[in-house]
Amino acid sequence: MTTPTDTYFLCATPRTGSSLLLGLLDSTGVAGHPQAYFRSPDEVAWAERWGIAHTPQGALDYGEFVRAALVAGRTGNGVFGAKLMWGTHAGLTGRLASLHPELAGDELRLLEREFGRRVRFVHLYRDDILAQAVSWLRAEQTGVWFIGGKGEIGGGGGDVAAQPRFDRDAITHIMRTIEEHNAGWERWFEAYGIQPHRIRYEDLAADPQAVTHGVLDHLGLGPTLPAGRQITPSHQRQADRLTEEWIARYRLLPLIQGVFGDDLLGVCLHGSAVIGDGGLRPDSDIDVLVVVRRRMAREQRRLLVRELMKISGGDARPVELIVVVEGDVRPWRYPPHCEFLYGEWLRAGFECGVVPEAEVSADLAPLLSMALLGDAPLYGPSPAELLDPVPHADLLRGSVAGVPQLLDDLDIDTRNVLLTLARVWTTLATGGIRSKDGAADWALERVPVEHRAVLELARDGYLGRREDRWEDLLPEARECAVSLGSKIEDAWDIGGIGGIEVDKSEPES
Rounded to the nearest 10 degrees, what angle do helices 107-115 and 86-99 cross at? Predict the structure, then answer.
């Protein structure tokens, strides 16, 4: 069993979920009351809260300050926790060196001298540094670094109603800063032989309770919490559709504008970024619709594929990009034509030189409906100014059109097939378009009980709650898919396609 720690430091960079994790750890009742006690701009405010004298210039007895922080940051079991950003730690160790000059230059020994020999470190980082930089810029512009919390000093003010401004150069600068700070932490850990407990923000966001339990285990404080204690968040999620819009604008707009020039009419988001309340899920693509004036030349197709392959997938979030010609979708007619389609599932063909061509694509009907419903333009006017409404009957027909291909793809794309089938069924039965996990929630209340475990696994894998491996579950997945297909057939007949009158009532919201 791991020996319990005296002190731990959460080492991070801004916008990695550090405030969220501190609140979760605080809620356990055994992991201290971790805060950013040693951020120099806030030390005077902490000192005033603790009754420590200081000069008008902010000078104070730093030994007294540290002792007060230890009292404030400890739980009854004697554990102390605090947050250190890369831009903060040098200030802390520098001021500790003034208290212990004989240890100057040995930052780890300074921390151990002041905080105890059993100091441990947790390193919180973010894979998607573009999303991190966007979040950082928005926080700088609005002054809102967190919402909620438990008595933090600094960062909780600002104006939540303020309108931040997209700034490509500022985002690029912040991304470089993040890379420098991440590299700084890595050098520091290596220099002192520290093996921190590492946490990805993406995992924290997907399953905060499991991540918190992992930290407690690392600190020797798990697995049982005190009676009456639960791991609960005290901070609200801040990422929203604007964050996804900025990410897409940063990554994709220069490429799209360069390829289409004056023929470009509009660009908008659709799919998970705009449907439902959760925004992009851990494995969601960035779904982008491009509307242009005229058909693409073959060289434009080659160029767009080549450049998308550089920025989609790998360490970056995958991109699904669809191009339509305005005259093919306005005035509306069914089935619609797709001018160009890029998706990561087609990468193997692209690597062999395949160039996507224009084709009839009935399932554009629900896609265009999502774009209209989401109303998330990245360039140009609102989608409603570029696209005609999709008649309800065509939304239903387009939703069903891809079902045979989905069933064929079950073995190679199991999670997506099951969730898409659930969404098709939901759309036919309710008339509304839901997120994949929202559709799964709806379907789980209606699917036969023997198929619920498989559909729950697909939903939870999509949300990042647990790993979904399908090699040994394909027979059950096939049975679930057949059941969902049967539900779709029943709803299709009731819906009235194929001669029976279609319900033209308003779709559910």
Answer: 70
